[in-house]
């Protein structure tokens, strides 16, 4: 059975009398023990999807669709059941651990709290403390760091504590929402390896959110690329990264200079412009204003996801039924435009 099945999820935020359609008809699946990467630029709705999975959205959000966790719809669950599912069914590692940890409690107490709550009296404080120490060691911290307050730890150590908390109640799904933002590249790599290793070892399903397609291609089995609140391409992670079908996914994958390639450093291929403000979306394909391959019809038609080859789908009118040929895939990967001067990194 799929551990997580999101169907036709829409989320709209109400802000100052108008509506922001942040997520528009998203379908995503993570099988038990599977790893799904979700990529996309800032504001495309990745965190909104993550928060919807555990019904953590703020009161100004209206949600429709279905979010099945092990077959149970999170969106219609009673509060008591929802409390049981949070942590034990699925847990989240948020971006920015300093904001997620409580500054006035020792980190060990923050790890034991859900263990004791979910143990419902069957677990003693001493057992929970031992488990917190074990969890800290699993994430590469000495058990005595349980006595530390968050401000006494480095950013990387705090993020390790967040991962220990996410593991505390042995969930079947972990959602990692940009778990390495604000960490230096060496620590980023360590944290990603740590999450990858732990979910593999424990057979936990993973939904990993990042801007960085290459990181997701390394870590995940499948990759979904979001744009303006929609999934625009989904398929096997390495295939989508190497030969994206959707022009946005192709540009996102090419938006980084190749390490060791001086030519790529001088002229990294990138993406001009910015994603649309969801409150100002017009008809047609939302990527049209930035798309190097747009044709007249793109301003009128908002394409749905359609099959784009074996086991993959893309939302672009240029995708022929049954998917493009391998030759055209290689050609479209090479067509990604150079970034305008002002936006080169
Ligand atoms: N609480 C809120 N109230 C109103 N609008 C919101 C709220 N939270 C998010 N939004 C809007 O919803 C859209 C999607 O935001 P979201 O945080 O899901 O994007 P994201 O893909 O996670 O971006 P990032 O990569 O920057 O984290 C954005 O336009 C954002 O401004
Ligand atoms: S539908 Fe048109 S504008 Fe949208 S991604 Fe495809 S080619 Fe580009
Ligand atoms: Mg986010």
From TrEMBL:
Its topology with respect to the membrane? Peripheral membrane protein
Instruction: Tell me the compartments it is located in.
Output: Cell membrane
Concerning Gene3D superfamilies, the annotation shows: P-loop containing nucleotide triphosphate hydrolases (3.40.50.300)
Q: Do the record's keywords include Membrane?
A: yes
A molecular function (GO) held by this record is: ATP hydrolysis activity
Q: Which UniProt keywords apply?
A: ATP-binding, Cell membrane, Membrane, Nucleotide-binding, Transport
Q: Which GO terms describe its cellular component?
A: plasma membrane
Q: Which Pfam families match?
A: ABC_tran (PF00005), oligo_HPY (PF08352)
The signal peptide stretch is none
Any one GO biological process? peptide transport
Q: Where is this region: Disordered?
A: 319-345
Per UniProt, residues of the ABC transporter domain are: 4-253
Main location as per UniProt:
membrane
Q: Name the family.
A: Belongs to the ABC transporter superfamily.
Protein name (record): Dipeptide/oligopeptide/nickel ABC transporter ATP-binding protein
């Amino acid at each position: 059975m799929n551990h997580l099945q999101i169907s036709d999820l829409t989320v709209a935020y109400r802000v100052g009398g108008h509506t922001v359609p942040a997520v528009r008809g998203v379908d995503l699946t993570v099988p038990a023990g599977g790893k799904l990467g979700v990529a996309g630029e800032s504001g495309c709705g990745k965190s909104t999807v993550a928060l919807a999975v555990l019904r953590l959205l703020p009161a100004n959000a209206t949600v429709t669709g279905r979010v099945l966790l092990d077959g149970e719809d999170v969106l219609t669950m009673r509060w008591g059941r929802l409390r049981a599912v949070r942590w034990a069914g699925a847990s989240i590692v948020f971006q920015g651990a300093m904001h997620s940890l409580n500054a006035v409690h020792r980190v060990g107490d923050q790890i034991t709290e859900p263990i004791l709550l979910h143990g419902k009296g069957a677990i003693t404080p001493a057992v929970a403390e031992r488990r917190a120490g074990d969890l800290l060691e699993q994430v590469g911290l000495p058990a005595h760091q349980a006595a530390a307050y968050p401000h006494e730890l480095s950013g990387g150590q705090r993020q390790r504590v967040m991962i220990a908390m996410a593991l505390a109640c042995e969930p079947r799904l972990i959602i990692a929402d940009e778990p390495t933002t604000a960490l230096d590249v060496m620590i980023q790599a360590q944290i990603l390896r740590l999450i990858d290793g732990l979910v593999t070892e424990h057979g936990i399903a993973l939904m990993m959110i990042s801007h960085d397609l290459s990181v997701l291609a390394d870590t995940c089995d499948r990759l979904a690329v979001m744009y303006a609140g929609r999934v625009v391409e989904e398929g096997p992670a390495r295939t989508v990264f190497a030969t994206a079908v959707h022009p946005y996914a192709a540009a996102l994958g090419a938006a980084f200079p190749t390490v060791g390639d001086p030519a790529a450093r001088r002229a990294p291929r990138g993406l001009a412009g910015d994603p649309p403000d969801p409150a100002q979306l017009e008809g047609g394909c939302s990527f049209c204003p930035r798309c190097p391959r747009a044709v007249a019809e793109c301003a009128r038609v908002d394409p749905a996801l359609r099959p784009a080859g074996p086991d993959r789908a893309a939302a672009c009118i240029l995708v022929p039924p049954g998917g493009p040929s391998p030759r055209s895939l290689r050609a479209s990967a090479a067509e990604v435009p150079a970034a305008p001067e002002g936006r080169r990194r």
